Amino acid sequence: MLNSIRIIEIEGLGPAPFSAMHLADLGADVIVVHRKGGNATPGMPTAPVVDRGKRSIALDLKDPQNVATLKKLLVTADGLIEGFRPGVMEKLGLGPEVCHAINPALVYGRMTGWGQSGPMSAMAGHDMNYIGLSGALWYASLPGQPPVAPPTLVGDIGGGALYLTVGMLAGILNARQTGKGTVVDAAIVDGSAHMMNLLMALRQSGPQNSDRGASLLDGPHWSRTYVCADGGFFSVQCLEPKFYAIFLGLMGLEDDPDFAQQFERTSWAQATQRLAALFAAHPREHWTQVFAGSDACAAPVLSPDEALKHPLSTARGIWSDEGALQAAPAPRFDNQQVKPRNPPARGEHTNEILAALRVPPKP
Length: 363
Prior knowledge:
alpha/beta, six-stranded parallel sheet, 14% strand, elongated
């Protein structure tokens, strides 16, 4: 879908490489600039899944000749992605003004936690800090317990990488119409707050406060996970009354007065205790069979390794363990079957890319 787009990625960690991988999955020619003579960050794989489908060139961005090579490469590109703190690329002589001078249509994607401006832009942080400050972590646990969100998913990926991907594509569409590039300021604190708008819309039907356990998605007995007899977990989220009725029927609770008023908040605690006891009486597989094929909106909680073997994954090819456990490219398109491409070795395509630029390889 994106085979006419070229993206230059400056090696980094986390959401910026993920966004570049996402674009590569969709067919873009993504060239990642790895540090010349360097190794991968300690503790990280030498050929991580997030580098799949990319080409790699090794450059030393403190070497003027290598910087000149990168600038030649940017002339051929639609976009650049970097994930440093504000000001780092400017110190390398590769800030937006310099890059737009050599390629006015370039879309310059900047991935940070706190944003390119504001009182915290120069501060360090990580996923949980960003979503903590943005409000996105607030509802991520049961009342009375410390909030915990799935690592990286809400912040780095949801509020960061995916917003950068959307921003890059929007910028490229505009540049192809106008010939003018732009700077994409993708901040995790912005994106994760933006993702809260659906929950804010649901909150309008309930109490106008931020009490945890009082919203339609974090308080009811019909919107949480339960522990099974074998230590497994089962998810329940039957928001609509018709699905709630199916759930109660399969649980044998359709005539039970404790469950009659789905949206009555004063009944939620008692109903939750009773459901917890019911789920704890049988193993996860028992409940999987009870709800199989139904519209009760109840499903087992699987690990990635278990998800790999689930019939849904095997039918759709959602997960793969070829080389490394990884999920397939998404979204999907009609009449196209896209399989993950292997990540390159660091600097694997250096000579190939230099030859296309007519730059002689440096000994």
